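Priority: medium. Attachment 1 of 2:
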């Protein structure tokens, strides 16, 4: 289906999607700003509460690449983290894409100064890692979990001794106690860049770490000049 965000001057459209588990692709077009919300599964385009996208039970693509207005795309927080198979694409303007504990295969900003809100994307039992597939650029923002007074370490963590991604994450988290104030660090592994926010004190990234956040960014990106305000990291 297609959502056309058009209208008179100064129009700012808003829509909350209903229940249509038969839809596979939602395409967004138009030059007007649009807030589009996909509610929790069971009542939305994402199929059943257990998550059925991977087996064809709901939307697999939210594509705003043809839109020129500002998009605010919001994925409901009730979607099962085990449900996979979704790609989200913003448009050419300054978009905001809010992801929940749903395992999105890839999210694309597609130009503009975009905001990726992953504050509800906890690792949890579904091992949720949100993947920004077209990388980030100066002016983009990543909203992490508000866990008090967040602490950002701008120096890249050396994980060269790690033989797996899990081991690399373990090296980063081993010295972090984020149970009171979230601790945020970054590293490069396998030609990609990772941001990890520890919101616990278990020293590892496991299925029990239900409040930790992991963000994967395509390519090697130098985040050392990036700045943190509250729980929002601005790429510089």
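Attachment 2 of 2:
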């Amino acid at each position: 289906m297609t959502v056309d965000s058009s209208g008179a001057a100064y129009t700012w459209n808003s829509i909350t999607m209903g229940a249509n588990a038969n839809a596979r692709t939602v395409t967004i077009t138009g030059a007007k700003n649009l807030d589009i919300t996909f509610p929790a599964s069971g009542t939305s385009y994402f199929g059943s509460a257990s998550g059925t996208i991977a087996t064809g039970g709901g939307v697999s693509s939210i594509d705003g690449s043809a839109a020129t207005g500002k998009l605010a795309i919001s994925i409901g927080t009730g979607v099962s983290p085990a449900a996979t198979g979704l790609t989200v694409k913003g448009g050419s303007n300054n978009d905001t894409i809010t992801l929940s504990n749903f395992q999105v295969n890839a999210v694309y900003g597609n130009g503009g100064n975009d905001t990726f809100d992953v504050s509800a994307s906890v690792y949890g039992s579904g091992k949720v890692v949100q993947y920004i597939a077209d990388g980030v650029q100066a002016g983009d923002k990543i909203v992490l979990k508000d866990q008090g007074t967040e602490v950002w370490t701008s120096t890249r963590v050396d994980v060269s001794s790690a033989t797996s991604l899990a081991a690399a994450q373990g090296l980063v988290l081993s010295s972090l106690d984020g149970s009171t104030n979230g601790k945020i660090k970054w590293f490069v592994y396998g030609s990609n860049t990772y941001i990890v926010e520890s919101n616990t004190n278990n020293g590892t990234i496991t299925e029990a770490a239900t409040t930790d956040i992991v963000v994967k960014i395509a390519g090697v990106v130098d985040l050392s000049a990036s700045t943190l305000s509250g729980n929002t990291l601005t790429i510089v």
